[in-house]
From TrEMBL:
Keywords: Coiled coil, Manganese, Membrane, Metal-binding, Transmembrane, Transmembrane helix
Protein name, per record: C-di-AMP phosphodiesterase, consists of a GGDEF-like and DHH domains
Residues binding Mn(2+) 1: H362, D366, D443
Annotated source species: Succiniclasticum ruminis
One Pfam family it belongs to: DHH
GGDEF domain boundaries: 191-319
Transmembrane segments: 16-49
Length: 692
């Protein structure tokens, strides 16, 4: 009724009526010619009245539409002026064309004429060109208040042209004050419950040999430190037993603890009674989860991760991201062997239940990976189980070990000769895998490092991990058992120790003992780093079993070319920071030889006076970048490598990066090392102040 189409329809009806009357008049006039003048007059009168009625109706419609438009204009004017919404219009060249009073009030600028969005609204991503690409809605902050900004572009056809390309884009911007809502959201986030699981790491070792009064004093002093810490965070603490506590705090106070870098770790470590061993605690904290039960589960997993990384540290899980604090001190060896005995019995039970046993180390196997695999194979063979040691592509270490130990200069037994056929590639064993097969993973716990991804995937449930590296976030899941001891020198040490509890009558052959001994030697740098009493006990057992140190020394001999390459890398090293030496070995093949060369060069760098951290970056021809990092113990290189996605130990760590730039990686390492050195220096100053 109110559109042009409706008007056309009414006029069409009138024309039909007039036509019918005209036909009727013509018919009458045809029959009676005397009525022609009267008929013409009648037709004129009808047309005149019809035209007049249509004109009046059209005028009424026009007046009605004028009233509607005026009312809409008044409503729009009132809305843009009085409603709590800021509105602005920017022209096709990005200049402000119009704004209401709220927009000017909220932006706080006296004169906005001809200004661009980026001159009025907070950057980034508020430039006219960016905002015109896609309609969007975002929250911005101006002058201490929060606004929801909605914007969209309107295409206006250009005048005097029909070309669509000439259309001009107008940007409409709407601001809504949501400060109270944002404050409510922030308050909700700050008051969100966080749970912390606290564990006294070395309770039994610390309490051993103490008198009852000293134990009570030690417990009381540590308890007082923890209570004061929780009180400062306005939280609560519940002690579940002598070694475990549960702490509840809100997210706001968790941020305070993070800013403080959890100094409670250092305070607990400084407690002394009659004991010589420093007490340490580990804390797992989480805010993730919809219920307290879920939050508690995440906190417990964070604590497991902290303990798996050696203890004396804090792991915080927020929004599925892990943050690490502490863990910069050397991991103390555990004196208790209870866990080793339980693990050995569990491994024996699982091997007896399995029909086949597959042993696998990490890719580009070193002597520790091979030696520990040989040790596990020994356990399996003693139970008469079909055993396979899965290896990656050609490993120089394995070839040397085979040549020197298993079919070379060592007077090996018939049993040792069997190992020549035990080392197999993935394509040779995939068909051998059955639903009841057991997979033993040694010297690693991350899927990306496994010698064979296909074998790992083919045995998805029955897996056991034996490793001495600090636990990473992306640990292999769905395992029967994870035996991880960061305090141990090597996987070979762990396997050697397990053998005595697996079967006290089991004896290593000379070849097996030499392979395990080589693993000890390579990871301890000839018993110079990461050694403890249990390391030397394992070495003594292997020597008693016939391990030959002379042959092991031959394994580590290099040819003249490798010797020259190693010292070329050392000669090209730079010292961008005090105590840091870093070198890049460019355009090399991505192989185990390259990794060994980098590790040897990094070891040599920390022997230079004044160098605490030695890093060698291998820029491979396939685009990968491999990093070997070494430390004299004053800096935790494992933390540095973790930031890049790798891992390791406090003194030995590394990372493998795909499609990376060596120079960019070098700069990252320099920045991360500087951070570690600054923290170590600050910690040393604080300890000096406490002593004074």
């Amino acid at each position: 009724m109110f559109g042009s189409r409706s008007q056309f329809s009414n006029w069409k009806e009138i024309c039909i009526y007039v036509l019918l009357i005209a036909l009727l008049v013509v018919g009458i006039c045809f029959l009676q010619p005397l009525f022609i003048p009267a008929g013409v007059l009648l037709l004129i009168i009808v047309v005149w009245f019809a035209r007049r009625a249509y004109t009046q109706k059209k005028q009424m419609l026009s007046d009605y539409l004028d009233d509607v438009i005026r009312n809409i204009e008044r409503s729009v004017h009132y809305s843009t002026k009085n409603l709590d919404v800021g509105i602005a219009v920017f022209s096709s060249d990005g200049k402000l064309q119009w704004k209401n009073e709220k927009f000017q009030e909220w932006t706080g600028l006296k004169s906005l004429e001809r200004k661009k969005p980026e001159e009025v609204l907070p950057v980034p991503e508020n430039a006219f060109e960016t905002m015109c690409v896609k309609d969007d809605c975002k929250v911005i902050q101006m002058r201490g208040r929060y606004y929801q900004m909605q914007y969209f572009s309107v295409q206006n056809p250009a005048k005097n042209t029909e070309r669509k390309d000439d259309a001009a884009s107008t940007l409409m911007v709407y601001l809504t004050d949501i400060t109270e809502w944002e404050k409510l959201k922030q308050r909700f986030a700050e008051e969100r419950m966080c749970l912390a699981c606290v564990r006294f790491d070395n309770y039994e070792d610390v309490m051993k040999g103490l008198s009852e009064s000293a134990r009570a004093n030690l417990n009381g002093e540590i308890g007082e430190i923890l209570n004061k810490w929780v009180e400062s965070l306005q939280g609560f603490v519940v002690r579940s037993n002598k070694e475990n506590l549960v702490v509840g705090i809100n997210y706001k106070n968790l941020q305070k603890a993070i800013e403080d870098k959890f100094s409670v770790l250092d305070k607990v470590r400084e407690v002394r009674q009659e004991n010589k061993l420093a007490p340490t605690i580990s804390i797992g904290i989480s805010k993730d989860g919809e219920t307290l039960q879920e939050i508690s589960l995440h906190a417990s997993k964070a604590l497991d991760l902290a303990l798996g990384r050696g203890g004396d540290q804090v792991v915080v899980e927020c929004d599925k991201q892990m943050q690490y604090f502490g863990g910069t001190n050397a991991v103390s060896a555990k004196s208790t062997r209870v866990r080793a005995r339980i693990v050995a019995h569990t491994i024996r039970e699982q091997m007896e239940l399995a029909d086949k046993v597959f042993v696998m180390g990490h890719a580009n196997e070193d002597y520790d990976s091979i030696g520990s695999a040989v040790g596990i194979a020994k356990l399996s063979l003693s139970l008469q189980k079909p055993t396979f040691i899965v290896i990656s592509n050609r490993s120089t270490s394995l070839q040397k070990l085979k040549k020197v130990v298993f079919n070379g200069e060592l007077n090996i037994s018939e049993e040792d000769k069997l190992y020549e056929g035990l080392f197999v590639h993935e394509e040779d064993v995939l068909e051998e895998i059955s639903p009841n097969s057991l997979l033993m993973l040694v010297d690693h716990h991350r899927a990306v490092l496994s010698a064979s991804q296909k074998v790992l995937e083919a045995i998805p449930q029955k897996r056991i991990i034996i490793d001495h590296h600090r636990r990473a976030e992306d640990i292999i899941q769905n395992t029967i058992l994870k035996y991880m001891e960061p305090s141990s020198s090597s996987a070979s040490e762990l396997v050697t120790e397990l053998t005595g509890y697996f079967n006290d009558k089991l004896e290593f052959t000379k070849g097996e003992a030499t392979a395990l001994y080589s693993g000890l030697v390579v990871d301890t740098k000839n018993f110079n780093v990461q050694t403890g009493a249990r390391t030397f006990e394992a070495a003594a057992l292997l020597r008693t079993s016939g391990a030959d140190p002379i042959l092991v020394r031959q394994l580590f001999k290099d040819d003249l070319e490798s010797f020259r390459d190693r010292y070329r890398i050392i000669a090209e090293a730079e010292t961008p920071l005090p105590h840091l030496a870093i070198s890049i070995n460019r355009d090399v093949e991505n192989s185990s030889d390259t990794s060994i060369l980098a590790a040897q060069a990094a070891d040599a760098l920390i022997n230079v006076t004044g160098v605490s951290v030695g890093v060698v970056i291998s820029a491979c021809t396939d685009g990968n970048v491999n990093v070997s990092a070494r430390s004299d113990g004053s800096v935790n290189v494992q933390v540095i490598m973790e930031e890049l996605g790798g891992g390791g130990h406090q003194t030995v760590a590394g990372v493998q990066l795909q499609n990376a730039d060596a120079d960019e990686v070098k700069q990252q390492i320099i920045e991360l090392t500087k951070k570690q050195l600054d923290e170590a220096e600050e910690k040393e100053k604080n300890e000096s102040n406490l002593i004074e």
